[in-house]
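Form 7-S
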Amino acid sequence: MKKKENDALATNKKASYDYFIKETFEAGITLTGTEIKSVRARRINLKDGYVQTYRGSAFLENVHISEYKQGNIYNHDPLRSRRLLLHKKEINHLQIIQAQQGMTIIPLKVYLKHGYAKVLIGVGQGKKQYDKRETIKRRDQDRELKSKYKIR
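Output:
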């Protein structure tokens, strides 16, 4: 059986609930040896993560990658900043977005592509409480329709 190439290792399910996703980018992540082993073992948490840009670089902040169990003294810090590999034009575009009021850059999912770890980052605008209730209402209506008409 052939393995899927773009199988998500971790997803940020809370992102679509808390933010309107306007735009997405694919970026590589600079990881150490024990970090990539933990990512391949799906021991990564994107829940509270965000992207920060400064000095012409983009960094993935507050993403928890658990320590590798077989790692020894060379294990990594679980919450360290990780550099994102993006083109200069994309980084400049993200800096402009970051300066705008109410816009946030968040990681949406982490996956492997041709053996390299990639992160899909999204530009999000925060939802208000009534927007979140609307999202829940729409999701419940879709679930009812699917069960009523057995749509797959």
